[in-house]
Amino acid sequence: QVQFVESGGGLVQAGGSLRLSCAASGNTFTINFIGWYRQAPGKQREMVASIIRGGHTNYVDSVKGRFTISRDNTKNTVYLQMNNLKPEDTAVYYCNIDPRYYPWGQGTQVTVSS
Which residues have CB under 8 Å from 72's CB, separation 6+? Predict the structure, then answer.
């Protein structure tokens, strides 16, 4: 089993930046794919960025050019650098390998004021 602990969220003005961290613990040596997700109030959770062990990344269109996902395999940690934040980025952010099989962490709240 793998557990996720997200951190780094906060309140920021539009145009600002935040760096989120997700520490994975447990049976982590098999982790290849990992993604960052977010859930805004009243909306479904969506994946915003993903990365595989070799470094290939993928982003949802709404964050391309603003968010950067990276990982440190030695620390079992994945990061999400978020720049030029917009109010519509306000959400609780989570990381996960595959939510069909792994429980969600507590998430970290990101609030962007206009």
Answer: 78, 79
Selected residue with higher pLDDT from 18 and 55:
18
- State how beta strands 108-113 and 10-13 pair: parallel
**Host H or E run for residue 5:** strand 2-7
The whole-angstrom separation of Cα 48 and Cα 35 is 8
CB atoms within 10 A of CB 34: 24
Encode burial over 63-88: b for 16+ CB neighbours within 10 A, e otherwise: beeebbbebeeeebbbbbebeebeee
8 vs 106: CA distance, rounded Å: 12
pLDDT tens, 84-113? 999 999 999 999 999 999 999 999 999 999
